[in-house]
Design brief:
Order of helices and strands: HHHHHHHHHHHHH
Number of strands: 0
Largest sheet: none
Helix content: over 70%
Distance between the termini: 25 Å
Oligomer: single chain
Structural class: mainly alpha
């Protein structure tokens, strides 16, 4: 339900599952439910409640020895630390998660850690190292035939291309990422790619295309209940309208964001 964007339905089921497992004392299952619930909350825009749920899941997982859930919660919390600019905290959690994933022989987890580590490295300005990490992660996801993971790694490479002014390379990667998701229901990743394609079209002066692409991304986020991504898309639409001298449309988009 979560990858396909059915977030409200997922939250209802997870809340019921937590009530049941709290009564039965099933520690590993309860920890896992906290982790997935936190993922839903974060996508719906409630990052602080998500943090609490991940920290609760991590504590329960440590108590019952559920190494997989420990690693997943650590990796997710590292992502939140990154978003808040706490880069040292993010790297510390990633190191712990990486050790657990290696012990578990979890290649997917290792690849996700690589992506988040690359984002930290990118923020610190080491673009070549960041690109190498993103590409390593993409290779691991490709070995796993994980289309969503491959698309995510490609999208982050495209974002790095954008930072470096390589607009054609960024567009190639983003369109390749979108193609990977053809005939999948991974709406969260699809909408993220569309947001970047809309931004790229704006940079290239293709304003009508930018508006259409960003509108499609916003509608996809709204249908999926992904409020955080929807707000990001509306903000980009507002900025586009400002640049085009459309203040009323800009005001509506930014107010709704």
């Amino acid at each position: 339900l979560v990858p396909s964007g059915r977030l409200e339905e997922a939250e209802t089921l997870l809340t019921a599952n937590l009530e049941r497992t709290s009564a039965t004392g099933a520690g590993a299952e309860r920890a896992a439910a906290h982790h997935v619930l936190a993922t839903v909350l974060e996508q719906r825009g409630d990052s602080e409640t998500a943090r609490i749920a991940w920290e609760d899941g991590l504590e329960i997982a440590r108590e019952c020895g559920a190494a997989q859930v420990q690693a997943d919660c650590l990796e997710a919390l590292a992502h939140l630390d990154l978003e808040k600019g706490r880069l040292d905290d993010a790297l510390s959690r990633l190191e712990s998660a990486d050790q657990l994933y290696r012990h578990l022989a979890d290649t997917s987890g290792l690849a996700r850690c690589l992506v988040t580590s690359a984002r930290v490295v990118l923020i610190r300005g080491d673009y070549s190292h960041a690109m190498a990490l993103f590409q390593h992660a993409q290779g691991l996801f490709q070995d796993l035939r994980d289309r969503g993971g491959q698309a995510s790694a490609l999208r982050h490479q495209a974002q790095l291309d954008l930072r470096m002014g390589r607009l054609s390379a960024a567009e190639r990667r983003l369109r390749a990422a979108l193609e990977l998701l053809t005939r999948t229901d991974l709406r969260h990743e699809q909408s993220a790619i569309l947001l970047d394609l809309g931004t790229l079209a704006q940079l290239l002066g293709r304003y009508a295309e930018a508006e259409d692409t960003l509108q499609n991304a916003v509608e996809m986020c709204r249908a999926a209940g992904n409020r955080r991504a929807e707000a990001r898309g509306l903000t980009r639409l507002g900025q586009l309208f400002v640049g085009q001298g459309k203040p009323e449309l800009a005001r509506v988009a930014l107010d709704n964001a």
